[in-house]
Amino acid sequence: RAAEACLNHYLVADPESVEEVRRRLGQLSRLSGRSGVPLEAARIRESPVAAFLAFAGRGFLLLLGFPVYVFGLLTSFVPYRATETAARWIAARGGGPTTLPLTRVLAGLACFGAWWGGLTLAYGRWAASPLLAGVFAASLAVGGLLARAYWLRARSLAEGLEALLPFFARRRAVARVAEARADLLLLVDGLVRRYEASLGEPLLPAPER
Q1: What is the pLDDT of residues 125-174, one digit of tens each?
Q2: Number of neighbours of residue 168 by Cβ within 10 angstroms
């Protein structure tokens, strides 16, 4: 936030300095793109232990959640697609797009109820236990919700792994990007300090910078 306030000031007071920051930022972005090193990999270069823990943690979450995702996919994909198809078909022949949310709810109750009910009935006959059948029925709903949550979260986890991978596999490229990033931050920090000197007080307390 201090850097933002400083750059806004120098945009009028010293536009050449702001242009230099913009030029360095462009160079950093191009270097990152050419080398295939995300800025995240350069940022964490200063803390290799944290980088390793982040990489291992994200990989562990992806592996841990995958069986749950597969279970939810196998037990919920068919009714999910049937719900979407039925809802759009009903909405197209009924009240139009405005009725789509309601038709999704009604179609979902019918499709998921029939599909999960059939699975529960088949499992109950196989297990010969009403208690296990009840647990299985509950796991269907929970598994479907967890599978959706995993699907939504998996992309960000995978992107995080992709950002961290160059830190381990392409150390020289990461070092070049990290050096360019450090130069940019040093330039911005110099402008902030110059601006604070002209004000006679810090823009923000140190913990909030």
Answers
A1: 898 888 988 999 999 988 888 888 888 888 777 766 666 665 565 667 77
A2: 13
CB 13 within 8 A of CB 2: no
CA-angle at 157, arms to 33 and 168, nearest 5°: 55
Half-sphere exposure of 34 (CA within 13 A, CB side): 9
Burial class (CB in 10 A: 0-12, 13-18, 19+), 164: buried
Q: 154, 62 in Cβ contact below 8 A?
A: yes
Q: Hey, what long-range contacts does 103-106 have (CB within 8 A, 24 or more apart)?
A: none
DSSP letter assigned to residue 37: -
Element (H, E) at 159: helix 130-169
The CA distance from 134 to 145, in Å, is 17
Q: Residue 165 has what pLDDT?
A: 61
Give first-to-last CA distance, the chain, whole Å: 6
Look at residue 101 in the predicted model and tell me its pLDDT: 79
One-letter amino acid of 30: R
Indicate the pLDDT class of residue 121, thresholds 50, 70 and 90: very high
Query: Per 3-state DSSP, what percentage of the chain is helix, strand, and coil (rounded to 5)?
Result: 90, 0, 10
Provide the angle, in degrees to the nearest 10, between the axes of the packed helices 15-35 and 2-13.
130
Angle at 45 between CA 44 and CA 48, to 5 degrees: 85
